[in-house]
């Protein structure tokens, strides 16, 4: 687990984390004596939820979804922490417990009315409450209208923020372009500001989610800049560079507001004299593979990259063809053609009985007819195979639950 327990994967896919506050919290209802004590932690303000992160790693994180919230109001009472005048009262119909004992496991949904009190240690309640109430109003709207209102709030907040130039590495750097962009990771989009100078590319997120306040990339270390799609729009830009001094290969996948912004950033990056990209023609890459100097895996990743596929986006995750049909032999003779599947057919047509059922269903359908009901590259199918490596992705996609055990991936033969 990470040292910081809170990640954006604990939120809904695409949900935005705005900021956090140092607080003390106690639960009033349900009334348990041990919960009446004030607990130190941090309160995360997100676009669709509030998350309390207990400083004690043994205790669970508590997520209060705004759609399940009854009221958010300032609390005034004599039963206060001494000297604390910044108290918030939150009533909800249910809440979620996550990462209890710091173990990644299905979330616990507590379906009962509860009241939580928060004492803000430093922030002023009058500065925090209006933002929360605005997001609470958005949570009462239908999904499309809620998302539209959230985006209006996001744009309003972002328009008031510019890049903090005190983070510039070199006094003599010249600013070339400043623009809004989103850092894209699987199931996560984190907005921020991109600043391009004559020697570096900077990304400053609007929140404090990342380990470092500002990501700094030296232009001379960049080896690849690829224009990509994101959510079927030509707004993505993937940057590959070699991190110094360890030489580790790193990637940054950005999505811009529109194609013109993306194209402008791409063009101005290429215009910088410090940028020197590794360019190998496609026919040379094919020749390297044919000569054995490039592995099958690396060549397949290269082909996937040409097809706009990237590990940073589960909707266009790299596709590796499955070619083996012998699952029982202790060893495989790669020169034996009988171990390979029929590559003239898709996976769904390899098993005759299943194919006949699909054809029968197809013949009974109304127009428009289809043979396969889902795409092989959808996030759910990708995580079907990766759930053991990335269980946190599955919990995020499935709203805090793993899939039904009978549908879990157990062995290739099935």
What is the number of beta strands?
16
Report the sheet with the most strands, covering strand number, pairing sense and barrel closure. 9 strands, antiparallel
Distance between the termini: 32 Å
Overall geometry = globular
Spatial strand order of the main sheet: 5-6-9-1-2-3-4-7-8
Q: Count the helices. How many?
A: 8
- Uncertain segments of ≥5 residues (pLDDT<50)? none
CA radius of gyration is 25 Å
Q: Mean pLDDT across all residues, rounded?
A: 90
| H/E element sequence | EEEEEEEEEHHEEEEEEEHHHHHH
Q: Beta-strand level of the residues, as a percent range?
A: 25-35%
> Helical content, roughly?
10-25%
Helix-and-strand structural type: alpha+beta
Using brief descriptors, characterize the structure shown:
16 strands; 414 residues; single chain; FAN-like_PH; 9-stranded antiparallel sheet; globular; 7-stranded antiparallel sheet; 8 helices; alpha+beta; Protein FAN-like isoform X1
Write up what this structure looks like:
- This protein has 414 residues and is of the alpha+beta class.
- It is built from eight helices and 16 strands.
- It has helices at 125-139, 143-159, 259-271, 282-291, 296-306, 352-364, 379-386, 391-397, and strands at residues 17-29, 39-46, 49-54, 61-65, 69-74, 87-92, 95-98, 108-110, 114-120, 175-185, 188-197, 200-205, 215-218, 222-230, 233-243, 248-256.
- The strands form two sheets. A nine-stranded antiparallel beta sheet has the order 5-6-9-1-2-3-4-7-8, with helices on one face.
- A hairpin with a 2-residue loop joins β11 and β12 (200-205).
- α1 runs antiparallel to α2.
- The longest helix has 17 residues, at 143-159.
- The two termini are 32 Å apart.
């Amino acid at each position: 687990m990470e040292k910081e327990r809170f990640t954006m994967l604990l939120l809904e896919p695409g949900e935005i984390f705005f900021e956090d506050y140092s607080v003390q919290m106690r639960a009033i209802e349900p009334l348990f004596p041990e919960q009446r004590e004030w607990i130190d932690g941090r309160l995360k303000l997100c676009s669709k939820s509030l998350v309390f992160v207990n400083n004690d790693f043994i205790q669970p994180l508590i997520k209060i979804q705004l759609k399940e919230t009854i009221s958010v109001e300032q609390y005034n009472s004599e039963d206060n922490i001494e000297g604390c005048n910044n108290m918030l009262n939150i009533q909800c119909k249910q809440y979620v417990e996550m990462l209890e004992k710091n173990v990644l496991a299905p979330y616990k949904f507590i379906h009962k009315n509860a009241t939580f009190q928060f004492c803000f240690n430093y922030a002023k309640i009058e500065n925090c409450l209006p933002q929360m109430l605005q997001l609470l109003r958005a949570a009462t709207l239908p999904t499309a209208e809620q998302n539209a209102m959230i985006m209006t709030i996001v744009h309003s907040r972002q328009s008031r923020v510019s890049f903090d130039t005190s983070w510039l590495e070199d006094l003599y750097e010249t600013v070339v372009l400043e623009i809004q962009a989103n850092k894209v990771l699987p199931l996560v989009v984190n907005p921020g500001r991109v600043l391009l100078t004559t020697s570096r590319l900077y990304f400053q997120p609007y929140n404090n989610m990342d380990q470092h306040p500002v990501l700094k990339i030296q232009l001379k270390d960049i080896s690849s800049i690829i224009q990509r799609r994101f959510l079927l729009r030509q707004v993505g830009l993937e940057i590959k560079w070699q991190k110094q001094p360890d030489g580790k290969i790193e990637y940054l996948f950005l999505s811009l507001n529109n194609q013109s912004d993306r194209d402008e950033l791409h063009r101005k990056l290429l215009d910088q004299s410090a940028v020197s990209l590794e360019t190998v023609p496609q026919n040379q890459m094919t020749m390297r593979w044919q000569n054995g100097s490039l592995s099958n895996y690396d060549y397949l990743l290269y082909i996937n990259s040409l097809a706009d596929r990237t590990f940073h986006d589960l909707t266009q995750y790299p596709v590796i063809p499955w070619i083996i049909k012998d699952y029982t032999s202790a060893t495989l003779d790669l020169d034996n053609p009988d171990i390979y599947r029929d590559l003239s057919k898709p996976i769904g047509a390899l098993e005759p009985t299943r194919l006949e059922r699909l054809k029968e269903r197809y013949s009974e359908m109304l127009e428009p007819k289809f043979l396969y009901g889902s795409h092989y590259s959808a996030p759910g199918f990708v995580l079907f195979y990766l759930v053991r490596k990335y269980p946190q992705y599955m919990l995020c996609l499935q709203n805090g639950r793993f899939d039904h055990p009978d549908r879990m991936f157990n062995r290739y033969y099935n």
